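#struct-help
A.M.: can someone run this one for me? Single chain, 189 residues.
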Amino acid sequence: MTTTLATTTPTPTATRPHPATATTRPRTPRPRTAPGGPAGTRPRGPAGTHPRTTTPSSTTAPSRTTAPSRTTVPPRALPPHTVFAERLLAVFSGERPVHWMLGHTVGEAYEQLVRIAPETPLRSLGPRPVLRRCSVQVHEGRAVVEAFATIATGPRVRAMAFRLERGADHRWRCAAVELDGLGATARRA
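D.P.: on it. Structure tokens below:
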């Protein structure tokens, strides 16, 4: 007579993640902006949060293990001067090459970038440079914009100024760039 012993394996118990570690939205890379949101925007709720609305699920009833689905308010498009400030910051910090701005510049702006960027003036071994503030002055029927931005790298704050022109195709292009006064005049060696 053969005896077989049945062994029971313990079944794993369903564990719920801790509320502090559970995420309800996918992780996306954070933009390089100072605390408080992108430059030129105001907080949209308590502590700068986006207002959220919950939508009931029509197909299934919410259970204890699944969180209710949430829809967020779509993000606002950043103004063109803030977009260009972020682009110029990426070039001056060495994260992007100068030719990345080739289709986004007109006139002397590309030559100014070629002169200023090789030294990567905003590169640092410590904290990454962030755009703190970007303000604008609009000229000539909203076809020309002069903007200035402050860039923080740790405790140091630098200034950047640039001019945007709207072309016949309604696209904004950078026409002039200055960083801490560099690039204001044609400096040829």
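A.M.: thanks! The helical segments are 80-92, 109-116.
D.P.: also worth noting: The first strand starts at residue 52 and ends at 54.
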